[in-house]
Amino acid sequence: MSLKVLGCARYRGQMGVKMKIGMLTWDCFGREDMKEAFIKLGHSVTECPFSDDGEPEDLAAVKKLESQINALSPDFLFSFNYFPIAAAACKNLGISYVAWVYDSPHVRMYHYTVAYPTNYIFVFDSAVYEEFHRGGVTTVYYLPMAANAERLKNLNAFEDLKKTAWKPVHQVAFVGSLYTEKHQFYQRLTGISDYTRGYLEGLIAAQKLVYGYNFVQELLPDKIVEDMQKSLPMQVRPGSVESIEYLFAQYVINRQITAVERLEILREVAAGYGLDLYTPDSTLKMTGCTNHGLVDVYLYAPYVYKMAAVNLNITLRSILSGIPLRAFEIMGAGGFLLTNYQQDFFSYFVPDEDFVYYDSKADLLSKIAYYLKNDRERKQIAENGFRKVASGHTYVHRAEEIISYLDIKA
Predict the structure, then answer these.
(1) Model confidence pTM above 0.90
(2) N vs C: which end of the chain shows fewer Cβ within 10 Å?
(3) Beta carbons within 10 angstroms of residue 75's beta carbon
(4) Spatial CA neighbour of 99 closest among 182, 42, 40, 26
(5) Given this model, what pLDDT does residue 160 score?
(6) Residue 78 to residue 45: CA distance in whole angstroms
(7) Band (12; pLDDT cuts 50, 70, 90)
């Protein structure tokens, strides 16, 4: 399916032009898959090791990055996620900066540099695109995530997996953080008043019941934010335009909602059906759950998706409407996906044909029971999802779509 662009004019670049692409490399998802996609399309890719350790106001840091980019002599610079210092360097050099953002929230986007005309910033959440579009920002586009279906399909070393700590035991699996680690921000709100604590707990309980609309930020009164700020000081980075309310809503409260929601759901799933859990918090224990700890998402998570009868996706609450990368990886590996409601799914996939969604905890448990009993139907849905991803949602498809936007001169 072609790229859905919500109201943006689209410029079709010269698809036949073979380009030199500079890629900022850091510890990110998708790097090897995207590099392979560009190369498959006939382009060359040169990596530029990068750490986001400077601001656009730091002229020396900008000049250093400009020198690194110049040494690559690229037609455009690419990175996963957006970095203001890279935008500044590319603007000064007069080359295009392409950023594909897979984090939500991604606070670095809320920066004055986002409007630079040399930017092409792609976000996977259509609600985030709409927010920037309403604000008159024309450098932001909507582009869903992807999966390397060919690589995932060819991962068949199942015996190797069974020799590791990640060998599946149960029929239901979840791969992802539970946001229970001690460094999470909400656990640091120790000095807030009883009133603030009660207000936040009520807000969390209410938002947990609602899928498809997030009202956390708009329901944060000034006095609640001021009290949280005393206990957990938040600062806006230089040049950034996000609000303190945004930081508390997205990085503190929505993550806590996700933590509470995931724990509640997974405890019931584990007790009723058994659960293989792959998460950074290896100390977490619950009845019926085998906690395998953190799994390598590139090398081993695809085997989990292939071997589990049911793969769960419980989306981070700060992702407003987008399809998480985990969902594409599950379907791209040929796994059966059972996910919470996210609006963007319905633009590309057919529910109960390519994937299955739930709209409440009771609905989730009911659908797990149903699909564990109906193997043929479950396997057909998994196959349909794989075919849909392989035919229109690979990194090669996304690379083609990105390049079609660029005003690159031959």
Answers:
(1) yes
(2) C
(3) 20
(4) 26
(5) 83
(6) 10
(7) very low
The answer to whether the CB of 276 falls within 8 A of the CB of 170 is yes
SS3 383: helix
DSSP type of residue 351: B
- Please give the Cα distance from 25 to 48 (Å, whole number): 6
Which two three-digit tokens encode residue 367?
Answer: 């659908």
Q: Summarize pLDDT for 154-194 with one digit per residue, the tens.
A: 999 888 888 888 999 999 999 999 988 666 789 889 999 99
CA distance to 19, 111, 147, 199, 232, per residue, from 242 (Å): 35, 8, 31, 23, 17
CA separation for the pair 170, 333 (Å, rounded): 18
Q: What ranges make up the beta strands (E) of 50-138?
A: 76-80, 96-101, 119-123
Residues linked to residue 211 through DSSP beta bridges, in sequence order: none
* Separation between Cα atoms, residue 190 and residue 187, nearest integer Å: 7
How far apart CA 129 and CA 314 sit, in angstroms, is 22
Do the beta carbons of residue 396 and residue 37 sit within 8 Å? yes
Token pair, residue 164, equals: 């590791």
CB of 47 closer than 8 Å to CB of 23: yes
Q: How far apart are CA 29 and CA 19, in angstroms?
A: 23
For the segment 87-129, what is each residue's pLDDT rounded down to a tens digit?
A: 999 999 999 999 999 998 898 999 999 999 999 999 999 999 9
Q: What is d(CA 368, CA 302) in angstroms, rounded to the nearest whole number? A: 20
* Upstream peptide bond of 105 is cis (omega within 30 degrees of 0): yes
How far is residue 257's CA from residue 250's CA, in Å, rounded to a whole number? 10
Report the sign of the C-alpha dihedral through residues 169, 173, 174, 180, in that order. Answer: negative
Distance CA 172, CA 311 (A): 6
Residue 20 is classified by DSSP as: E
d(CA 219, CA 207): 11
∠ at Cα 147 (141, 153), nearest 5°?
165
